[in-house]
Amino acid sequence: MRGITAEPVIRLIKLVEAVHHTARLFAVGAASKDVNARFRKFAEKIHGTAEQFEFELQTELMRLSARRADVSDNPNTSEHTALAAALEAYREALASNITAHARAMVTRQFQEMQRAYEEFASIHVAA
Asked: Are 25 and 80 in contact (CB under 8 A)?
């Protein structure tokens, strides 16, 4: 695996799972007619962002000669919980010994997801 140990790969796989779950939950929110327009627009944006991030992470795992992450859906959590779990998975991945390329990508994604989390919190405060 080009100098990367199993532990960082496992953390990247967990990150893929968390981002995938976030994308799925926000896809439901984006498709729902029972939510306000502001939340629906936000859900559409986060759904697209999370799907892109999942693709980037999967590509990085393949580049590292790791297996593609198998993901499953867990519909029993809220959007807030999913975003918080994704942020924690980003922190764990960044705390591991990932390659410089992966670290730059994960850092960029983490910062964007933090901004999304803050925006999400402001939407719920306003609601």
From this structure: no
